[in-house]
Amino acid sequence: MDHGDAAEPMSNPTRTARLGRPPPRRPARDARSFPSPETLIRPSRSTDPATPRPPRRRIAEALGVALSLAWATGVSGQEPPSVGVCPDGRITNVFIDNKSIFDIDDLEDGALGWAYGLANKLHVRTRASFIRRELLFEVGDCHDPVLLEESGRVLRSYGFIARADVFAVDQPDGSKHVVVDTQDEWTTKIDLGVSFDDGLQLEVLDVTEENLFGQGILAGAFLRRRRERRDRGLRLELPRLFGTRLDAVAAVGRTRVGEFYQGAINYPFVGEVGRFAVRQTFRRRDELFPYALNPGDEFSHVLLPLLDERAEASVAFRVGRPGNLTMFGLGVSRETLEFADLPSSVDVARNNDFGNSETAPEEYVGAVIGQTHAASTTRLNFLVGQRNLRFPRVRGLDPLDGEQDIRLGTDIGLTLGRSLGVLSAGELPASDDLYSRLRLFAGHDPGTSYVFLNLGLEGRYLISGTSTGESWRDVVGELDVYGYIRSRRMPGHTFFARVSGAGGWLMETPFQLTLGGRSAVRGYNEEDDPGARRLILTLEDRIFVRWPAPDLIDLGFTFFGDLGRMWAGDVPFGRDSGWRGTVGGGLRVGFPAGSRGVVRFDVAFPLGEDNTRGPIFRVTLFESLGLVAGFFDPQLERSRRITVGPDFFVTEVR
What we know:
Elements: H1 13-18, H2 37-41, H3 55-76, E1 91-99, H4 113-122, H5 128-134, H6 145-156, E2 161-170, E3 176-184, E4 188-195, E5 201-212, E6 217-226, E7 229-238, E8 247-254, E9 259-267, E10 276-292, E11 301-321, E12 324-338, E13 347-349, E14 358-359, H7 362-368, E15 375-390, E16 393-395, E17 403-405, E18 408-420, E19 433-444, E20 450-462, E21 472-485, E22 493-505, E23 513-514, E24 530-531, E25 533-545, E26 554-567, E27 578-590, E28 599-606, E29 616-620, H8 634-637
Parallel strand pairs: 1-3
Antiparallel strand pairs: 2-3, 4-5, 5-6, 6-7, 7-8, 8-9, 9-10, 10-11, 11-12, 11-13, 12-15, 13-14, 15-18, 16-17, 18-19, 19-20, 20-21, 21-22, 22-25, 23-24, 25-26, 26-27, 27-28, 28-29
């Protein structure tokens, strides 16, 4: 039902809020970013406290403040705050306008009003009390535009909030009334993930409420069956644990070969103003690592069972100001990787039938045994980062017509982890090494478009225990360049371009990449062309059309082409693929209108000699390429055993 905390009473609340309300939810399509409400309210006055004011203006403002304070004192009988404590005014009221999914008063299609109303009634609206707790200011504080801007970004980081605007309205006495205007996404989701890669496949059955009781609590049950993975479990995410800014996460369930447990209690940096963060995580998982084999082989995969266990406790602090922050951190972590009953535990599967595996022949076991380095290592980690970012709001990059906060500027992080000879697990050896991890992000808007760079490099330098001349192990690198090209001459079109490279060198832990899949060369299956180093180029035209019900649903089309190549390297069953290409197109749907979420229906055709393979049809309930999905390569993540770094302390999108 559409319930929520009642917004605070105000004199004619709707009219008061609209005095400074930002533009409608759907401005002109060629607008590059959402206008600042502060600019709309007070266009003639700078909001930067550092901006000098002419002497006459300062005298006039001081006189005006004095008169307002004298008037306020005479009316209320209370002592006014000292002049100069709040040069930009004091916040005297905060109004929460927490809308449901559809703002019926602003919709033009009266014929579908009943549908909008029904959706609102079935939805649990985000509570005003939850929104108020997320704000970085309260009544009585001095007005600070940075805190208002960051509060809006914190609210928008939640996936169940489609839009959040936080802006101030000047009052005659020099104080400020702040309006917090939010609108929800649809939060009760039944995710029925279907793929047609190899016939009709049910990959996901996920029932989730992302905003339980309107308090930001995520609770869900899931079944995920994709390739070798078969997970069944429950998960719970609790923001604002016990009324604090602690976030808690818990998940438990079964895999195809065992069990998994995951838990975390984190205090992340709060936007750009947070100075302190704590991270504590634990994960234990029994799983299979699948090695894809080459076409024509008797088997499709070699399956290596392993136990992956990780724990971390870290603390970090930041110095500087928003837009120029330096981070320092210190922590302890332990990574355990174990392979039981080798070599008899290694299996093979035929035709992707992972439920009917059989014991692997000796030659297949010998091919993967070099990547079964078991160890339990405790590390002392040192972290440092430099963050120079701003966060404009842009409409229609990855969503069809929704807004997203993007990062422009640079963000660099370095992690150094020295192994310690303590807290080993059982009789497993401990590595004597130095772990290094470097991450670099850069974002730039050269005009009407946006360009983003993501670079990552990590590896272990052996201090002792090497019998060869090579001292580096488990070196993993990735490079992503994303471009969004838009032109006022082609309204409704966003051209997305990508160059993505990934690779592994001297791997002692399970590692293999493939060229096909939904986020790679899309005309090929996920197990096609295994190897160690991969390069992918993508060009996609995303077209948004305001039809047929623009107030209810966003609709668009896409045409794309992929080109990729795999190099064998030194991983098991690797091969040089040569260049592979695909072309395709599809339908993109966003619900409700203005949502940040996208459902894709794509069909991709292989080119060249492989055009006889036939097309691949996929349905994905998310945008798999772009900033919303993140610079995330699932095949790199499954091989990354150490997850410590400055970037893990900041949550950009929840």
